[in-house]
Amino acid sequence: MSVKILTVITALMAAAPALAADALSGNVQQQATNWPAIIMFLIFVAFTLGITVWSSRRTRSAADYYAAGGGITGFQNGLAIAGDYMSAASFLGISGLVYLSGFDGLIYSIGFLVGWPLILFMIAERLRNLGKFTFADVASFRLGQRQIRTLSAVGSLCVVSLYLIAQMVGSGKLIQLLFGLPYSYAVVLVGILMVLYVTMGGMLATTWVQIIKAVLLLSGASFMALMVLVHVGFDLGDLFLQATQVHEKGTAIMAPGGLVSDPVSAISLGIALMFGTAGLPHILMRFFTVADAKEARKSVFFATGFIGYFYILTFIIGFGAILLVSTNPAFFTPAGQLLGGNNMAAIHLAGAVGGDLFLGFISAVAFATILAVVSGLALAGASAVSHDLYANVFRPGASDEEEVRVSKITTMVLGVIAIALGILFEQQNIAFMVGLAFAIAASANFPVLFLSMYWKRMTTRGAMAGGWLGLLTAVSLVILGPIVWVQILGNDEAVFPYKYPALFSVIVAFTGIWYFSVTDKSAAGAQEREKFDQQFVRSHTGLGASDASGH
């Protein structure tokens, strides 16, 4: 498997921005200024900032700030979740993979979708009934507050920090490719807007930014797919046939197994995508914005529908790019390389089916996608510090005003750090960061959250041992694996041979939780097991969920 393909796949694992291989290695060339894209993006920014001002007038309490007062409907929240989850990597990256390798791109589309049934049937309802603002509320319901909240906060901050770096670097590279503006402009602009959205409007503003972005992205992708289908007379068979006739790999693009061929990597990647999705703090946080468990289930139902529809569109767009982009010399360099790399296939297709104006629209939407994602990430990171650490570990009993103030300060600090690291990592290959973020979510967050809701014998001792072991194993195996150990550190051979550690780190986490829980004979452990019945009743009824903050 080529280095370029591996880089794209690793970026896709975390639903990060479209980080093509050249972008990740810092080799992006600044393009001519794209004024239609810039104007459309500025319109989006102006409109969303207006919504942020409107939201700030309706954000008066901690519940308003963290969870939009629970006033978001299931449909709205489902659309917002889709907006948070449908990243530029999904749009540009998967369509680029389809353009490059055909059928295999669909495998990754499905991979990002498989975690949602797990969330729908096993997590959403109990999460809403047991929690208040963060998933740590649930994990610490019957376990040690300080220990579990510290572990959950560390896991959340690791995921958020790694994501933010990827988003900032991706935004800089993307704006060079699409807008023709300098890298640093994009990094600073994204950081400032992220801070404004979160500090002024909180979850309400973030929700509406994500909803607007989702509508724009779904509309643009639908138009592109429709124009491709019009070109082939709405005959998918003809689309695939014509694509095999013009693609350099011929009929091989209709066969799977070209990107991930060994079983261990395939299983590990699948586990990371499924369990990682169910452990992402910024996704889990969205279930506290609705009124009750019924609306939470609706949220997942609608989100799954929107996301599934979107991934079908990316598959059609990818094959459409094979048909309409690969046969047009205008989209290639004199050396025969696609302008901007394979991840720009969807952008070129936009120009082919809709002209310069639609090209500008899609370019603006791709960049707006990053703003929606970083806003959710920043709010999740800020809540981990203010709600989980400050209000429940360092200063229990802190007022709502103090908690929100700490959250806003944290958001500003995160913004400064994200801008600084985005500029610092401009020339670095940061593909391992997004893969690591997904691995941490699957190995540290998900096992503790899931077993706290479903396994009576779990204790604080087991959760701490398994959670920390999962986190450290994921980090260690990524460092010792081919991406960091060989590609970045320059060693000849990786200590750990696989690029995806989730299969091993998740097993370590679950095994650690099981072993250290069943061997816990302490009085505290016995009390924690007894509280499971109380938790079980509340997880089904929601009684007292409005004031959930721990014991």
Secondary structure topology:
Blueprint: H1 3-13, H2 21-24, H3 35-56, H4 62-67, H5 74-85, H6 88-101, H7 104-113, H8 115-130, H9 136-139, H10 145-178, H11 183-231, H12 236-246, H13 263-277, H14 281-284, H15 293-324, H16 345-394, H17 400-424, H18 431-454, H19 460-480, H20 482-488, H21 502-518, H22 523-541
Helix pairs in contact: 1-6, 1-18, 3-11, 3-16, 5-11, 5-15, 6-7, 6-15, 6-16, 7-15, 8-15, 8-22, 10-11, 10-16, 10-17, 10-18, 10-19, 11-15, 11-16, 11-17, 12-15, 13-18, 13-21, 15-16, 16-17, 18-19, 18-21, 19-21
Brief overview:
It contains 22 helices and no strands. With 551 residues, it is an all-alpha fold. It has a single domain (30-429), classed as Sodium/glucose cotransporter (Up-down Bundle).
Task: Throw out a few tags for this protein.
single chain, 551 residues, mainly alpha, Sodium/glucose cotransporter, 22 helices, disordered N terminus, disordered C terminus
Kindly describe this structure:
With 551 residues, this protein is mostly helical. It has one domain (30-429): Up-down Bundle (Sodium/glucose cotransporter). It has helices at residues 3-13, 21-24, 35-56, 62-67, 74-85, 88-101, 104-113, 115-130, 136-139, 145-178, 183-231, 236-246, 263-277, 281-284, 293-324, 345-394, 400-424, 431-454, 460-480, 482-488, 502-518, 523-541. 61% of the residues are buried.
